[in-house]
Design a protein that fits this description.
The complex is a heterodimer of chains A (514) and B (164). Chain A has 13 helices and 21 strands. Classes of the chains: A alpha/beta (514), B mainly alpha (164). The complex binds flavin-adenine dinucleotide. The site of flavin-adenine dinucleotide has 41 residues of chain A, from helix 1, strand 10, helix 7 and helix 12.
Chain lengths: 514, 164
C-alpha cells in the first residue's frame, strides 16, 4: 500500500543472509536503529563517513504490517511488549525491537522540547542546548519526518468526544502534530503503520542512511563494545539462532562507537562492556512519564478504531506536569489491567465500540534505575514518590472528568478495587480519600535519562554532544541522554539531539579518525 | 528470522486451560478457539524475556498447587476443581493481597490478550480493522497519491525541503 518498494534494501543484511562469522571495518558503528541510532547513522553517512548500524530486531517492511496484535507484540516489541519496572506500584513498559526501533510502533506524536524544559536543562550545565540553538534542528527533524497536523478527515469520533469534554470544562487543548504524510487515520500505529504514512525511522532515516552507503545488520544483538583501555574500538555481536544452532558472530572494528539502544539497553551494554562513568550515574536517573489509562463507555457507537490513534492533547495542566489524551487501543489491550473476567469481561467487552480509551501522562518527580544482572539482563526499578502519585491521581481525576463531561455513562479507573463511576459526584466521592500507591495501575512507553548529558564528568555520564566522559571514541545517541523528563512525547527531542551531535562529530572527525 | 515458540509441558497446558476456562468469556465455547489461543500464548512466551517467562510459568504452577491448601480445593489441585469451585478459588485469590492480585492480573492478561486478539473474537465485537485499513489506505492514495510520492522521495534527499 505504500508507494515505497517492500524488498530488502541494498545494504541491509538479515540473519538468513549470513553464511558464517563476519568481520567488517568502518568509521562509525551505531548500535540500534531507532530514533537516535537511525538519525545519527543517516547524518554521518550524509557527511561521507563509512557507517555500520547493528540492530537486534528484525527487518519488517511496511508491506508486512497488519493489525494482528499478538503477532506485532512478538515481532516488533522487546520481550513481547511485556517488561516491568519493579517498585510499588510496578510500572509495565514497552520498547520497540526491530529495524526502526520504537519509532515503528510509536503513536507518531511529534513535539519540540518545551522551552521551559530546555531552560531547565540550560540551568543544569547544558548552556549550549537553548531553545534558539535547537531551533534549526527541530526544523530539520520536522522537514525530514513530515511533522504536521492531521488531515481533518482522519480524526475519529473518540478524539472528537474527548475534545468536546475538554472544551466543556474550558481547558486548553491542542491538535497534535505528528510525523506523518497524509495519515489516513487507520489507527494501526502501534502495530507498524501498514500504509507508510507514519514517518518512522523505517521509512525515513534508515533508507536515507542506506542510500548514502551505510550498511545495516539486522537480527544481530551487540553483546559488547570492544575496547583497549578506555578507548572504544568496535563491537562484537551475534545473529539470532538459525535452525536451533547459535547464530553467526559479527565483529565490527570502528574509530567511533555510538550506543543508541534506548534508555534501558544502552546503559546495560556500556556496563557489561566495562565502561564506568566517573559520575557513578550510568543507569541511574531513569525517568519514564508514568501513564494511567481511563476508559469511558458512551451510549453512542464511537468506534474508536476509526480515525487517528491520538488527535488532541489537553495542555491545560502542563505546568503541573500533567498531560491528557485519548488514544484508542484494540480489544486485546483494553482487557489488560482490568479486574473483569469470564461473563463480566464478556459483558464489558460487548461495549467495545462504545468505549473511549484515554489517559494521563505525568512528568516524573523522582528517578529510577537500570541495573545489569548477569544471566538476566537489564533489571529496571522505579519507585513512584508521593508527589508523582499525587500527580497520577490528579491526572486520572482530570481524565475521568473529561470523559464524563463528554457524556460517558460509565468510567473505569486504573485503581485496583475501585468501582466504576457514572457521575462527577461519584468520582469526587471515590477520590476524596487517600489512594494507595500500590493500587495504581501504571505503564510507560517513554524511558529516558540513564546516561544523562552534562559538561561536568562528576555529575553527568556524557557531554552535551553525547561523548562518554572518561572514554574515547564512545558516544551515546538515544533517549538516555536526557537530564530529566521532557514532559511531552520525546521522539522529536531524541532525533534533534542526534542530528546536532552527529553534526558535531562530523565537524571534529579528524580528532576521532584512526 | 522467527523467534522459537516456548512449547509448554502437558501439565502446564492443562493449568493454562483450566485458568482460561475461568477468566475467558464462556461464549463462544473455549474448545473452538483453544488451539489458536494456546498457539499464540506459546509464541508469546517464546518472545518474552527469560525473567517474565519464569515469573509467569511459576505463578501458574503455584496457583495450581496452592488450591490444595484452600477451602475450595480441599487437597485438590486447581485443575481438578469443577468449574464452580475453580471460579470461587480464583475470585477469592483475586480479592486477596495486593501482590497476589497483581500477579493474577498479569496471568489473566496473558490469556485475555490472546483471546481478544483472535480475529474471530474481534469480529464478534464488531472490530474488523483489516477491511478498514484497506479502505482508508486506498482512499489515501487516491486523494493524495502525488503528494505522498513527492514526500516519500524527499526522505532520501540530503536536506528534504531544500530540494538538495
Ligand atoms: C508503544 C509506543 C508508543 C510511543 N508513542 C510515542 C509518540 O507518539 N511520540 C513520541 O515522541 N514518542 C513515542 N514513543 C517513544 C519513542 O518512540 C521513543 O522514546 C524513542 O523511539 C526512543 O528512541 P531511542 O533511540 O532511545 O530508542 P529506540 O527507538 O527504542 O531504538 C533502540 C533500538 O536499539 C536496538 N537495540 C537495543 N539494544 C541493542 C543491542 N544490544 N544490539 C543491537 N541493537 C540493540 C533495539 O532493538 C531498538 O530497535 C512511544 C514508544 C512506544 C513503545
Amino acid at each position: 500500500m505504500s508507494t515505497v518498494s517492500a524488498t530488502v534494501p541494498s545494504g541491509l543484511v538479515v540473519a538468513d543472509d549470513v553464511p558464517g562469522d563476519l568481520s567488517v571495518d568502518c568509521d562509525v558503528v551505531v548500535v540500534g536503529s531507532g530514533a537516535g541510532g537511525a538519525s545519527t547513522a543517516a547524518e554521518l553517512a550524509d557527511g561521507g563517513l563509512d557507517v555500520v548500524v547493528v540492530e537486534e530486531g528484525g527487518y519488517h517492511p511496511t508491506a508486512s504490517f497488519s493489525v494482528d496484535v499478538p503477532h506485532a507484540l512478538r515481532t516488533l516489541y522487546r520481550d513481547g511488549g511485556a517488561q516491568t519496572a519493579f517498585g510499588r506500584p510496578p510500572v509495565a513498559f514497552s520498547e520497540g525491537r526491530c529495524v526502526g526501533g520504537s519509532t515503528v510502533v510509536n503513536g507518531g506524536m511529534s513535539f519540540r522540547t518545551p522551552d521551559r524544559v530546555l531552560q531547565r536543562w540550560a540551568g543544569e550545565e547544558l548552556r549550549a542546548i537553548t531553545p534558539q540553538a535547537m531551533e534549526p534542528y527541530f526544523e530539520r527533524v520536522e522537514r525530514r519526518l513530515s511533522v504536521g497536523p492531521q488531515d481533518p478527515a482522519s480524526i475519529g469520533r473518540d478524539s472528537e468526544l474527548f475534545r468536546a469534554g475538554a472544551e466543556r470544562n474550558g481547558w486548553e487543548l491542542i491538535a497534535n502534530t505528528r510525523n506523518q504524510l497524509h495519515c489516513c487515520g487507520c489507527n494501526a500505529c502501534l502495530w507498524g503503520c501498514p500504509t507508510g504514512a507514519k514517518r518512522s525511522m523505517l521509512v525515513t532515516e534508515v533508507p536515507r542512511a542506506l542510500s548514502r552507503g551505510a550498511r545495516l545488520y539486522a537480527d544481530c544483538r551487540v553483546e559488547r563494545i570492544t575496547r583497549i583501555g578506555s578507548r572504544a574500538t568496535g563491537i562484537v555481536g551475534r545473529f539470532g539462532p538459525r535452525d536451533g544452532a547459535p547464530g553467526a558472530r559479527l565483529r565490527v572494528r570502528a574509530s567511533v562507537v555510538v550506543a543508541a539502544g534506548g534508555a534501558v539497553q544502552s546503559p546495560t551494554l556500556l556496563r557489561r562492556s566495562g565502561f564506568r562513568s566517573p559520575s557513578g550515574r550510568l543507569g541511574r536517573n531513569l525517568t519514564l512519564h508514568p501513564n494511567a489509562r481511563v476508559i469511558g463507555i458512551f451510549d453512542e457507537e464511537v468506534r474508536g478504531w476509526h480515525g487517528v490513534h491520538q488527535a488532541y492533547q489537553v495542555r491545560e495542566f502542563l505546568d503541573e506536569g500533567i498531560l491528557l489524551a485519548a488514544a484508542n487501543l484494540p480489544p486485546a489491550l483494553v482487557t489488560l489491567g482490568l479486574p473483569h473476567y469470564g461473563t463480566e469481561l464478556a459483558e464489558l467487552m460487548a461495549d467495545y465500540n462504545r468505549m473511549v480509551v484515554a489517559g494521563c501522562l505525568v512528568e516524573d518527580t523522582t528517578t529510577g534505575r537500570v541495573r545489569s544482572v548477569p544471566g538476566v539482563g537489564p533489571v529496571v526499578s522505579y519507585q513512584l514518590d508521593d508527589e508523582g502519585a499525587r500527580r497520577v491521581v490528579r491526572g486520572i481525576t482530570l481524565t475521568a472528568q473529561t470523559l464524563l463531561a463528554a457524556g460517558a455513562r460509565r468510567v473505569l479507573l486504573p485503581l485496583r478495587g475501585a468501582p466504576e463511576v457514572g457521575s462527577p459526584r461519584e468520582l469526587d466521592a471515590l477520590l476524596a480519600g487517600p489512594v494507595a500507591k500500590s493500587d495504581l495501575d501504571l505503564f510507560s512507553v517513554h524511558l529516558m535519562g540513564t546516561a544523562r548529558m552534562g559538561e561536568d564528568p562528576r555529575r553527568a555520564v556524557v557531554s552535551s554532544f553525547g561523548e562518554f566522559h572518561g572514554a574515547t571514541g564512545l558516544f551515546v545517541a538515544d533517549a538516555s541522554l536526557f537530564p530529566g523528563p521532557v514532559g511531552v512525547n520525546p521522539m522529536e527531542t531524541i532525533v534533534a539531539l542526534a542530528i546536532r551531535n552527529a553534526e558535531n562529530l562530523l565537524g571534529n572527525w579528524r580528532r576521532h579518525a584512526r | 528470522m522467527r523467534l522459537p515458540d516456548h512449547a509448554l509441558s502437558r501439565r502446564q497446558r492443562r493449568t493454562l486451560r483450566a485458568f482460561a476456562d475461568v477468566v475467558c468469556p464462556p461464549e463462544p465455547s473455549l474448545d473452538t478457539v483453544w488451539p489458536a489461543l494456546l498457539g499464540n500464548v506459546e509464541q508469546f512466551l517464546g518472545a518474552t524475556g527469560k525473567g517474565t517467562r519464569a515469573l509467569l510459568l511459576t505463578s501458574f504452577a503455584v496457583f495450581d498447587q496452592a488450591a490444595r491448601l484452600t477451602r475450595e480445593g480441599r487437597g485438590r489441585r486447581f485443575v481438578d476443581l469443577d468449574r464452580r469451585q475453580a471460579e470461587i478459588y480464583y475470585r477469592r485469590r483475586a480479592a486477596g493481597s495486593r501482590g497476589t492480585r497483581s500477579l493474577l492480573t498479569l496471568m489473566k492478561g496473558v490469556l485475555t490478550l490472546h483471546y481478544y486478539g483472535l480475529p474471530r473474537i474481534e469480529e464478534a465485537l464488531g472490530y474488523s480493522p483489516a477491511a478498514y485499513v484497506r479502505a482508508t489506505a486506498a482512499r489515501r492514495i487516491e486523494r493524495y497519491g502525488q503528494q505522498i510520492r513527492l514526500g516519500e522521495r524527499a526522505a532520501f534527499l540530503l536536506d528534504p525541503g531544500s530540494g538538495v
